[in-house]
């Protein structure tokens, strides 16, 4: 794997080669990574995986025609062939009036911010194995656990570099660590399974393996002997384990591609009250040690914290340069991309701000409802906002969390759900997308 400096030199050189081959414009993205993952089960080593890889992708523009090609072979001969192939493909591609690089006057040219997303450590396989064993041992030690699906630990480092023909070149490196456990409680047809995991940029920030294991076991044992839940309209409370998924549906509905295609249930809601007053959703790509932090976007534009939802109001679409041109707007610094193909748009470290009430107070007046801790399936229509998901969790009766429930279905419409949503004050910033406990009244629930 290349260093950041080497990667920047490589993408810059390939842009020059593309220009020499007749490109009117070009950009090049490099992605490299190395990772080690250890899995154990029932106290024995089950698997060790070590992977190293790197890819480079070239977008080659001839007027309004373009082609994207990529290669995992970074030798001089392979890259020369890559440029030739891209040039030939671009000249035969259809014209796209909105294709092109980001505006040159908007490019990021400052010193990279210190995001502290690489701790410089290298976790050895022996240390990862010890963490995986510690997580599983802690989970298996909890009363009620009868079997294990295993414990795992991982460490990785990635490098990204981007160069464009109109003046941008940048790159950065990031580390990532993870630990997980998954166990089974009960016997026969009464068995239940659950899990816990954590990831962090710095090894020192990762929860202890034992605490992760205990959390997995306690969640699993709590699911034993599920009760029946009557069907009907009732409040549904989303645990922080799953509440961030609602933000995912929001983001999918406000990306430039969804708006330009007219395939979003929020396509007519810009500047409108989408959530209750007091609800705000923020995206912060510059968060120190953030799991999705980045110093610039996928087109080389500067990034900044933004309130996508401000006091309940939808403030902006998420736009890459192509969708911005199509809408007659400016790109928003939310471009994201992979090695192949053009950029799209998305968020980085996303969270909904904490509300003003505690979780206990949020559910105190619920006579009958359900606390959802797991969602199953993808029954969401992005055009209409219709929402129907399999779920499991716990009964809420007279303001108290009660017996577990499983194999239920919750349904509603995301527009209505957003308007009815009330956040608790228990936000934790521990993932790439975070939200506190959320209550939504009037959802339809079908019991097993």
From TrEMBL:
GO biological process, alphabetically ordered: proteolysis
Q: Where is the Metalloprotease TldD/E C-terminal domain?
A: 231-447
> Which parts of the sequence belong to the Metalloprotease TldD/E N-terminal domain?
26-90
Which Gene3D superfamilies does this UniProt record tie to the protein?
PmbA/TldD superfamily (3.30.2290.10)
The record, for InterPro entries, names:
Metalloprtase-TldD/E_C, Metalloprtase-TldD/E_cen_dom, Metalloprtase-TldD/E_N, PmbA, TldD/PmbA_N, TldD/PmbA_sf
> Cellular component terms, GO, for this chain's entry?
cytosol
Instruction: Classify the source by domain of life.
Output: Bacteria
* GO MF entry, a single one: metallopeptidase activity
Give residue ranges for domain Metalloprotease TldD/E central.
122-224
Pfam families, per this entry? PmbA_TldD_1st, PmbA_TldD_2nd, PmbA_TldD_3rd
The text of the family note is: Belongs to the peptidase U62 family.
Tell me the protein's name. Answer: Microcin-processing peptidase 1
């Amino acid at each position: 794997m290349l260093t950041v400096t080497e990667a920047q030199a490589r993408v810059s050189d390939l842009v020059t080669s593309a220009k020499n081959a007749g490109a009117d414009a070009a950009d090049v993205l490099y992605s490299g990574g190395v990772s080690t993952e250890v899995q154990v089960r029932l106290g024995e080593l089950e698997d060790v995986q070590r992977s190293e890889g790197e890819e480079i992708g070239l977008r080659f523009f001839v007027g309004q025609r373009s082609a994207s090609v990529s290669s995992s072979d970074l030798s001089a001969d392979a890259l020369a062939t890559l440029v030739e192939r891209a040039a030939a493909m671009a000249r035969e591609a259809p014209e796209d009036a909105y294709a092109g690089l980001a505006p040159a006057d908007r490019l990021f040219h400052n010193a990279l911010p210190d995001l502290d997303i690489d701790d410089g450590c290298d976790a050895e396989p022996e240390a990862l194995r010890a963490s995986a064993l510690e997580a599983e041992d802690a989970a298996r030690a909890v009363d009620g656990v009868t079997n294990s699906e295993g414990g795992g630990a991982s460490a990785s480092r990635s490098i990204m570099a981007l160069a464009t023909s109109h003046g941008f070149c940048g790159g950065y490196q990031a580390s990532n660590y993870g630990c997980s456990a998954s166990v089974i409680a009960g016997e026969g047809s009464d068995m239940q399974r659950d899990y816990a995991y954590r990831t962090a940029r710095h090894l020192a920030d990762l929860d202890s393996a034992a605490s992760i294991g205990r959390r997995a076991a306690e969640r699993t044992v709590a699911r034993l002997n599920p009760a029946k839940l009557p069907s009907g309209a009732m409040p549904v409370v989303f645990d922080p384990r799953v509440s961030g998924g609602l933000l995912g549906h929001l983001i999918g509905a406000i990306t430039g591609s969804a708006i330009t295609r007219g395939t979003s249930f929020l396509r007519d809601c810009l500047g409108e009250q989408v959530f209750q007053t007091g609800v705000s959703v923020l995206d912060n790509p510059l968060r120190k040690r953030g799991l999705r932090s980045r110093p610039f976007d996928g087109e080389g534009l500067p990034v900044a914290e933004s309130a996508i939802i401000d006091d309940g109001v939808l403030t902006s679409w998420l736009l890459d340069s192509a969708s911005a041109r199509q809408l007659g707007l400016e790109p928003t610094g939310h471009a994201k991309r992979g090695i192949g193909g053009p950029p799209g748009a998305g968020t980085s470290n996303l969270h909904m701000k904490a509300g003003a009430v505690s979780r206990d107070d949020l559910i105190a007046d619920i006579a009958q409802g359900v606390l959802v801790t797991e969602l199953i399936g993808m029954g969401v229509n992005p055009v209409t906002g219709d929402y129907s998901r399999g779920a499991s969790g716990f009964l809420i009766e007279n303001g108290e969390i009660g017996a577990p429930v499983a194999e239920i279905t919750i349904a509603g419409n995301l527009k209505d759900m957003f308007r009815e949503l009330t956040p608790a004050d228990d936000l934790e910033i521990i993932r790439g997308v975070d939200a506190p406990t959320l209550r939504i009244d009037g959802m339809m629930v079908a019991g097993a």
